[in-house]
Each structure stands twice: as structure tokens, then as C-alpha cells.
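Section 5.1 Outputs to date
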Amino acid sequence: MLVYDDEAEAEAIFKAVSPDNVETPNGLVVETQKIERKVVTTIKYRGDNIATLLSTIDDLLKCVLTAEKTISAAKNI
């Protein structure tokens, strides 16, 4: 769970990572929700290749970091 300063920031992060909810490998489910100032992602994996799960977590965190950096840069303009 990630908590942000305001709902608009949480919404921006939610939208940035929401495409990850659409297409996933077999056995992998990624669901992201925005609840007030929080962004909550649930990842479920049923498979033999732990690298798939680790890669998914890594990709999600990279998307979040990129979105956070973009928001921060926009605030400083």
C-alpha cells in the first residue's frame, strides 16, 4: 500500500499503473485500487517460475517510481 499527500496524487499514480491490470501472463493476477489517498495493489501468482512474479513486482515499482518523479517534477514547475 502506498499513501500519498492528497487524492489527486493517488489518482495519478493509480492511473499510471492501472494498465498493468489488463494483460498478465497465465497464473498471474494484478489488481490495483485507489482508496482515498492510498494506492493498493494485490498480486496473485500461481505458477512455477518465481521470476515471473519478481519481474511483475519490479515492473510495477518502476512504473510507480516514474509516475512519482513525474508528479514531483510537475510540482516544481
